[in-house]
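Ticket #4471: complex job returned nothing on first submit. Input attached below:
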Amino acid sequence: MIEDIELETLINDVYEYYGFDFGSYSRASLKRRVSRVFALEGFKHFHDFLSKVRTDPEYYKRMIDEITVNVTEMFRDPSFYLTLRKEVLPLLGTKPFIRIWHAGCSTGEEVYSMAIMLKEEGLLHKSILYATDINASVLETAKSGIFPLRMIKDYADNYRDAGGQQDFSDYYIANYGFAKFNENLSEKMVFSQHNLVSDTSFNEFDLILCRNVLIYFDNNLQKRVVNLFDDSLAVLGFLALGTKETIKYSISQTKYKQFAKEKIWRKIKE
Amino acid sequence: MEENKRITNCRVVIIGGSAGSLQALLQILPFVENPISFAIVIVVHRKNSDEQTLEDLIALKSKIKVKEVEDKVKLQSGFIYIAPSNYHLLFEKNETLSLDTSEKINYSRPSIDVSFESAAEVYREHLIGILLSGSNSDGTAGLRAIQAAGGISVVQNPLSADMPFMPNNAILHTVPDFVLNIEEILEFIKEINRE
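Support reply: We reran it on our side without changes. The output follows.
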């Protein structure tokens, strides 16, 4: 493991040279991620690593891709998606237009999952899915809708556990070890770079999903981000987080009501 | 074994295990008297589908209260915490727990090494790491980190383990402070609680 002081130096340098602020990231995870990159690249001294980061913007970008966690899957936590399908989508379906934001969407598997559910519930035509991440390279993957074929069996299981009844293989074409998802799913998706640490609200949404992103932030940053979501959420809109995340340390509990047993909250007043 | 190595002011007992460790846990935890002067953290490999059953089972059998692990929950003495499946469990300096969904380590998430190493950084000599039955090499590097930070490492006697590979691996690659049978692990925990 690298030393605490080394990590703090890196955080300061990255902020000074590139304007990106890791200062409010959870230290335990960040330290492990940085230690891993440092060890993988075979640097002898930490200052060699630091100077590479400072002087080589391409390397800096690669390092950011490596230390930010981009693990995701389709229909991750199927019972969560089942609740969305059965309880949340019918409520959203009464609206003339449905605006959804996937914040920290990574490579987009959950965005495609949502599109599949919307399509099956007859709502995709009147929906728009904004998908954002700080990491430009994962957004490229998300845009392409191409995911490794070896994961598809698990995804098909998740899909069924999440209430899916169609033939999952109708949604993609398999080729050369990859599954390319149908373009009629991505027609309603808009991908763009957005930084939850420093950017502001850019629209009003009926459903915001941000799953397993807040776990990498400390309490102060979690508070900022949850309030950013609050500013971006219509009254009676829904906020959905990861299965072990909570808004209870971040925002007044009188404004939000937890929905069903899942980590879904409904905004009950402005 | 260093019989004379003693722990003072233990804050956290962290227990790692894989295949066969549930039986061991159920022979230990129900017999630890409430209250305890430290926190017990359990990191075991399991299937995602078992999510709630392990918590429920331990809560049912144990006299000590099980606290649900959510991101940034405060780690307090007197409670049992169980790493949720599909997340790595990490320890922050402000004594909260945090979670991480990054790549599996030793084919495992939660990984015992990740939690042991992270706990060692925060709790140093006030930490005891116990490695139980399993058929995977996870936990060995973690025990080494606990010792290096001044804490104590305990390994289940492989002869008493359903799956001896994991404790054997730790004994082969580290010098544990104690190698104990299940009853001795229980006695050991009771002993720390008296101090």
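The interface with chain B takes residues 1, 26-29, 32-33, 69, 71, 212, 214-216, 219, 222, 242-246, 249 of chain A (CB under 8 Å). Closing as resolved unless it happens again.
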